[in-house]
Every structure is written in C-alpha cells, then in structure tokens.
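We close this part of the discussion by returning to an individual protein. In the encoding step, the backbone of a single protein was reduced to a row of integers, each denoting a local shape. The sequence in question and its structure tokens are set out directly beneath this paragraph.
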Amino acid sequence: MPSDELETLEEFIKKIIKRDRKIFFNDYKDSIKLSSHNDKSNSNDDINISNSSKIQLIADFTEYNPLHNGHYHCMKVAKEKIPNGLFVAIVPGLFERSGRGIPFIMTRQARAKTAINAGADIVVEGPPMGIMGSGQYSLCLAKTFKALNTDFIPRGYRPFDGYDIILDRVNLGHCVAPKPYKIIDMDTNEVLYEGKLEEDNYVIASLSKSLKRIGFNFKNKFLFVKRVKGVSGTLIREATMKGDFSKVTTMMPSSTIDILNEEIKNNRAPLHMSRDIDSILDSANNLSFSELLDLNLMDNKTAKKIVDSRENKDFESIDEIQNCISYGFSTHFNHRVLSVLETKINKDIIYDYIDNYPSKIRVLDYKNESVLEDFKEKINENNRRIELWQ
C-alpha cells in the first residue's frame, strides 16, 4: 500500500478503541452467561484445580513494551530451569493501555509477535490494565494464572538488602501484602520490611496477595530472576519516536527491532503518545456528573471539577482535563482516568467483568500447531474456552 494511502495514527487509535469496546462488551456478556456455570464448577475456590497433565506450563505476565533484553533474559532463565515447559506469555490487553494508563508503543498483536520470535510458545491476551486500578488488574492476572493451570511464574526483581525474606515468604505460598510504608506477611502478621517497594518488586507482593485471595496455591511456583542492567526504557522510547535504533541495538533482540521498524513503516507505531482525543473531550464535555461518577476509577472530586470547569467553556485539550483530575493513591491515576474517559467503561461493568474473568482464553499468537495442541490439552483440564485471535 502506498504511504499516502496509510491511515493516520489518530485514525488507527480510534479504530482500536472502537473495536476493543466491542470485544470487551462481548466478553462481558459471555462472562455473565457463564457466571452461573462458573459458580457451580468453582464452588470451592480454596481447592486448587487438579493438574494431572504431564505438560508443565510457565506463565509470564509482561507488557513487552517493547520486548527488550531484560524480558528475554527472564524468559531464557525460566526455560533453562524448566527445559520441557510450555512458555506462555500473558500480554495485555484490550484498549492497548498499560498499567500506568499510558498507551503502549505498539499493538498487542505486534508485541505478541516479538514474544514468539524471542522464544515464547504461546501468547495469550491479558486484562485491560489501563482502565483498571492496580488491585483490579492484579486480581485479573491471578485469575489468569489459575485458568491457565500454571505450574511456574517467572518474575524479574531488583535485589536490595532485606528483599530476600520477602521472596522466601512468597515461595512458601504466603500472602505478602504492601501496606503504607511497610510490607507484611499476612500469614504470620510479621512486618518483613519498613518502607516502599519499587514497582517490579511491588508487583510480586501485590500478586501474592491476589493469588491468595482466589485460593491459588503458589507455593514454590515463582521463579525469581534478577533484573539485568544496561536496558533503558527511556532511550528505547526515544529511539522509537525517531525511528532510529542505532543507539539501542544492544538493548533489544534484533527481531524486536525488525518488528518495530515494520510497525513504524505501516504507521502502526509508535502509539505511546497518541490517544483518541475526540472521545476524551466528548466524555469530559458531555457526560453528566452522575455519568462521569459511574465511570471506573472516577472519584467525586474529579467528576465535580470537570463539570464545574466546563460551565463557562468546553474543554479543548487533554491538558485542561488533566488539571481537573485529583491525586490518587497511585502516581499513574491521572493517565488511568484519561483512559477511562477514552473508553467509557463503568464501575459496575468492571466489577462484574472481574468477578467472571477470564470468560475465555484468547490466543494472540503461537509457535506452531503442535504447541497449540499441547496448550489446549493443558487448558482443557480447566474446561476453558479457547479463542484464536482473528
């Protein structure tokens, strides 16, 4: 297709949001239909689902935004430790928004392709992180691990004095919960650490809490991998914006760079600076106070300030809207609220969606047909519907 016929990034983003809203609500409807069946089949969540398959499944949740040497190292170490394991990458997800609420650099289909090229066997779709709070998407991830009959969970971490005891407790299957300025072993009520955890390390603690909540036995399932040095997300994003990867070739597999170049060539990347601005402005300018308050993550103070600020003049920019968003518990709250305004997903819908998540396992990409059959055999022990991305 000649370059002058390519759709703009803005048009591409609008199509993604429109398509993913349709997928989201179809998934939501399916989950409601299946909820009564799920209630019967999972009547005792404290009992872990039987895992009689000889196939050992390694499930790694990573955004791959984009896939770099740190991700590749974690995958490589996990595959070396479980040489005959099936490596499944869980890649979010609907609306192409990260856990920070910020758009991904490229679509989940392209990110899935980078994972397969790097050595993953299967890539499945993860939750729509950008329109959820961290506790909400952590719970969805925990339910995904359970639905996949996961045997091992590789997880990168940043070592520091005092963190080993936290990892040890997680390996024992304990719930390690982040509390204000301290980390507590909820099984023993011990304070394990005084202070806050960095993001990678926080995710491990948060995930243990969610896994415990749904009754998934994660004792000895985590494979902890020390983060590698020499990878800069900032430099990679800058290189992507310029379309020049000469300064970051040592930070990413060459296959990732090839896919990034292909996405840029076809005007499907970089997406991380692009939003459906018209939809965000429409929500902020036209939704009533009660309609705004119904949106997921929206608080009373933000909804009121949006309504008050537009009385004399409609919003004309995202910056004006961001000035109305209150400070949340997370530093990423501002961008998450923008994503909710962009997608218009309500609280009550999200609550039901999470209760019955995942309604299906959506496969984004896979290595070959033999691997796919092995995956189906493993998942079918759980009677989960598997859907291939079209």
Q: What stands out?
A: The domain at 3-158+198-231+351-388 is CATH 3.40.50.620 (Rossmann fold). The longest helix spans residues 9-41. The chain has two domains: 3-158+198-231+351-388, 277-347. Residues 43-50 have pLDDT under 50 and may be disordered.
